[in-house]
């Protein structure tokens, strides 16, 4: 056989590594708007537009120094939050944007020079509040704070005594500290701030979690933790750790695959836990083999998932829904149509393409030109 000489199609470097025209979309809790990232003055910023009307989109962050990559809707339709690290020093701050006042400047809610934000999480159980870690007191130690989003008030929940790697705060105000033992194991203990004492809850072999325990998420009622565990198994399963007894109970697993914990290394990838936006309850779990597999853990999400998976032959990536769980904005991981993003209304059954991040790339060009294909001889060589 012989190859036919041909000119191989090439992509310009700018097309291959350029910024998307749109990316990172999510729907507002009230289901009326969609936010996404798009260039403004050659930097990615957050834009907001109506999900139903053809009104003009508005850039709401307007940062021409550094691209914005992380933003958060809040339960109050007035506020949108985003994270930024200034000049690239990775000292992240969280900023608040007033969507009701286009002329109002963004407000830095963590205005402490040299301090770094870590572990920002809005609280489902306390509307208008979020918890976050800040090292404003000591650069090597992150204290835990509660943030009032509307007023910007920060309340110290606990000061880090030194060895704590992370905190959990239950709806009732109980604190749990994650630490490393002298042997390198991960230990979770209840923290008594008044007495300065701890009550060990559970210890996980450090050799099983060299990058930490992933996922590790407090349940909405504050009585347990959803976490990845391979205790007694060669697969990472989803279990519930009881905070009173330390006992593990399996929640879900796949017969072959592990939980998809790539987000621990690549934070832009979604968590393996799919949760209800309003209640925080678990609705699905992601597993990864050659392709992603999602297990629905809730009847409503099972119905939704069946229709979402019809929108693309890629793998479901980012998912967001309104507070009712009826309106959805979803994107897909795809080898030929990266980040393609759709809208879906579960009540009406309507779905439509919202955008392709790289519309100038031909998603139909799956192989080389026919003139470049291998030519097979008409008869075996003599």
Report on the architecture of this protein.
4% of the residues lie in helices and 42% in strands. It is built from 2 helices and 30 strands.
Strand and helix layout:
Layout: E1 2-3, H1 13-17, E2 23-27, E3 33-40, E4 43-50, E5 58-59, E6 70-73, E7 79-84, E8 93-98, E9 107-108, E10 117-122, E11 129-138, E12 141-148, E13 154-158, E14 164-169, E15 175-180, E16 186-192, E17 197-204, E18 216-218, E19 224-229, E20 237-242, E21 248-252, E22 258-259, E23 273-275, E24 282-288, E25 292-296, H2 299-308, E26 315-321, E27 327-333, E28 341-345, E29 351-355, E30 374-375
Antiparallel strand pairs: 1-30, 2-3, 3-4, 4-5, 6-7, 7-8, 8-9, 10-11, 11-12, 12-13, 14-15, 15-16, 16-17, 18-19, 19-20, 20-21, 22-24, 23-24, 24-25, 26-27, 27-28, 28-29
Counting DSSP H or I runs of 4 or more residues, the number of helices is 2
Output the radius of gyration. Answer: 24 Å
Low-pLDDT ranges: 366-382
| Span of the ends, CA to CA | 12 Å
In brief, what are we looking at here?
The protein has 382 residues and is mainly beta.
Task: List the main descriptive attributes of the protein structure presented here.
single chain, 382 residues, mainly beta, four-stranded antiparallel beta sheet, 2 helices, 30 strands, 4% helix, 42% strand, globular
């Amino acid at each position: 056989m012989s190859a036919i000489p041909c000119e191989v199609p090439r992509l310009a470097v700018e097309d291959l590594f350029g910024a998307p025209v749109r990316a990172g979309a999510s729907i507002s809790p009230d289901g009326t708007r969609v936010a996404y990232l798009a260039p403004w003055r050659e930097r990615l910023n957050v834009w907001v537009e109506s999900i139903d009307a053809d009104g003009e989109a508005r850039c709401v962050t307007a940062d021409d120094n550094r691209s914005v990559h992380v933003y958060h809707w809040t339960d109050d339709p007035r506020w949108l939050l985003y994270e930024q690290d200034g000049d690239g020093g990775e000292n992240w701050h969280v900023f608040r944007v007033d969507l009701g006042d286009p002329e109002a400047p963004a407000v830095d809610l963590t205005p402490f020079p040299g301090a770094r934000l870590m572990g920002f999480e809005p609280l489902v159980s306390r509307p208008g509040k979020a918890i976050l870690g800040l090292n404003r007191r000591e650069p090597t130690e992150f204290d835990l704070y509660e943030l009032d989003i509307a007023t910007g008030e920060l309340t110290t929940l606990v000061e880090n005594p030194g060895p704590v790697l992370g905190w959990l705060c239950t709806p009732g105000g109980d604190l749990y500290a994650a630490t490393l033992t002298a042997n390198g194991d991960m230990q979770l203990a209840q923290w008594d701030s008044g007495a300065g004492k701890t009550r060990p809850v559970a210890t996980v072999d450090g050799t099983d979690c060299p990058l930490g325990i992933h996922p590790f998420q407090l349940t909405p009622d504050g009585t347990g933790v959803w976490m990845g565990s391979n205790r007694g198994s060669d697969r990472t399963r989803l279990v519930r750790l009881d905070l009173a007894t330390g006992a593990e109970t399996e929640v879900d697993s796949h017969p072959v695959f592990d939980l998809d914990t790539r987000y621990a290394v690549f934070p832009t990838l979604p968590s393996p836990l799919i949760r209800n936006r309003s209640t925080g309850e678990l609705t699905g779990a992601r597993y990864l083999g050659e392709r992603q597999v999602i297990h629905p853990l809730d009847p409503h999400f099972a119905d939704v998932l069946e229709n979402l998976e019809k929108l693309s032959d890629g793998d479901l990536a980012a998912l967001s829904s309104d507070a009712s769980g009826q309106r959805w904005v979803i994107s897909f991981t795809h080898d030929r149509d990266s980040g393609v993003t759709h809208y879906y209304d579960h009540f009406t059954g309507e779905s439509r393409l919202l955008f392709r991040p790289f519309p100038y790339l031909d998603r139909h060009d799956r192989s080389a030109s026919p003139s470049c294909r291998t030519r097979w001889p008409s008869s075996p060589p003599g």
